[in-house]
Task: structure prediction
Amino acid sequence: MLDKIVQIVKSTLNLSRLLRKNYGVPYKSKEMLNTESEEVPNAESQEVLNTESEEVPNVESQEVLNAVITSNKQQPNLTFLNERLLLTADAISLNIKTFGYEYARNLRKQLTIPSNLSPRKINLQSKACQQKDIESDWFFYWCQEMKIPVAYHRKLWEFCYILQALYEYDLLTSGRKGLGFGCGEEPLPSILAAYDIAITATDLDPTASAAQGWIETKQNMSSLEKIFRPELCTKELFTKNVSLKYVDMNAIPAYLEGKYDFCWSACALEHLGSIKNGLLFIENSLKTLVPGGISIQTTEFNYLEEEETIDNNGTVLFRKKDFEQIAKKLTAAGHQVVPLDFNIGSCVLDKFIDIPPYYSQVHDIPQEAHLKLLIDRFASTSFGIIIKKAM
Result:
């Protein structure tokens, strides 16, 4: 059954790519087209229609351009593609999503979480997010420490991964100094301050963040009050240990260099404009560390494609070869890159690819199964990389 679902998902993805490649425009809803008439194409499709080359669309591609669910009179737009392909694909996708979420919800309820959890070293690798991580004692422990319920969610995995990496390198001790990049409203500054660690939490300047929509989606830290978690840290320790700096990750200021025992970012470096910029940030993050310091970064991993990916965009997707490239470069410079493990797992939820809409009225508990997800037609998951700066 699961193999059939995977085949359906892959077939839907391949069909979507074929339509986009052949006709030059994606399927868009009436609202997305933002036209006064269903006959008026948007700027992208107008460019296709105006060309005199062999790319002029035929009747079938014209149906793709007009593939809105309803007409401007709110009557059913029952074109062949709507009836036989697009609407059917939407229904199939929603059904698959519903079954995946229900499976994850039941799986979560069956988890047995020990009552006497304690941290332990597991020889953590640079690795992809996997279902078995979510079901492990080390993950349970850090969820408990953050006072967040266990869930099959890759963002929660990133926070736990970073904390586990810090524990592996004995960095969760009083007197240490840590630097967080693109912190947004994540809980890590508060929980690290509770260990009496001096934390510099950074984010993009609020003006720039507002222009990119980060404040609206609560992914920007506009003030220290936004990231203070009283359930994780006393106000006294937080005030003593946490400071806020506005930093462009593409231009790390010199005053941050050579000061910190560790630095981290959680799914931030894929928003730096390009794969090149993201890899350069990983390299430059080491400049902020003392010799032997640890850099821990999590980001997007396009795990099904070897070549085709998203680059030069608001969100970019790193491939296996991109991580191998930066690891080779850093190793040649004398740094230690924890071995790369690209295994995405073999459990059911490792094969389930969550699809938009990620928040839906159909699913009362959002993102129950969100270890792998679809980003701009590519299957992606989180990948963590750990680097020890040369001595």
User: Anything to note?
Assistant: The chain has a mean pLDDT of 82. Residues 177 and 198 are 5 Å apart (CA to CA). The longest helix spans residues 80-109. The radius of gyration is 23 Å.
